[in-house]
Specification:
This protein has eight helices and four strands. The protein is of the alpha+beta class. The relative contact order is 0.09.
Length: 221
């Protein structure tokens, strides 16, 4: 697909995008994630993938494809031989069904950030999610932005203040220009007692990925 993109460019990208919106083919989704503008995953209200072409066909390098293949193989190896249930339901039902032997990972819309297509996610909803999660007997980890150079996310302290917080700096590539693409400090809020080794602060790249892999590994045992 990368070679076809290099040959046909934008025309081929939109051909694959249309096909994905009709079939939901996973390989097409991986392709779109890499070939779209800044790798943004965005869907319209009618559930159609609508991110425009990124105009960078050289992103499909052998090194990158090998990395993706290794990551898929890692996940596949840990998922094989186990029973998995995928449910599309209200988050309240999911949390209510969790028991003391379960672990909940939460990656909700980032509260306090501009995202029009998540306009239905309110401060009250975010607070309710935090309360329900803390009341659950299950372990949990929440992914949320903590601060940038302009402001700090008060929601973390107000709703997740009793958790164990791990932080890492992440560089987003979604600004319209290079000058608008700033680093963001991300937080991982964990239920006390479920933290492993300290992931540290302001660590990025392979170091963070390796430590995150080590932390996640026991969940697939």
């Amino acid at each position: 697909m990368g070679s076809e993109l290099a040959r046909r460019g934008e025309e081929y990208y939109y051909e694959v995008r249309t096909r994905f919106n009709e079939t939901g083919e996973p390989i097409d989704f991986l392709f779109l994630n890499r070939a779209s503008f800044n790798g943004i995953i965005r869907f319209s209200r009618k559930s159609g993938f609508n991110t425009p072409f990124g105009h960078k066909p050289e992103r499909f390098s052998t090194q990158f494809l090998s990395k993706v293949s290794n990551q898929v193989a890692w996940a596949r190896e840990r998922m094989m031989g186990k029973d998995w249930v995928f449910a599309v339901q209200d988050w309240r039902d999911t949390i209510a069904s969790a028991g003391p032997k379960d672990f909940i990972y939460l990656d909700p819309p980032y509260i306090g950030r501009s995202a029009d297509y998540f306009s239905q996610w309110s401060d009250a909803e975010a607070t309710s999610l935090a309360h329900a999660t803390r009341e659950s007997p299950a372990g949990y980890a929440l992914s949320m932005w903590l601060e940038n150079e302009h402001r700090r996310n008060d929601h973390i302290e107000e709703s997740w203040g009793q958790t164990v917080i791990r932080t890492a700096t992440h560089f987003y590539h979604v600004g319209a220009s290079e000058s608008q693409r700033k680093p963001m400090i991300e937080a991982l809020a964990l239920r006390p007692g479920y933290e492993t080794s300290d992931l540290g602060t302001f660590i990025t790249g392979r170091s963070l990925q390796k430590r995150m892999d080590d932390a996640i590994e026991p969940l697939f045992a």
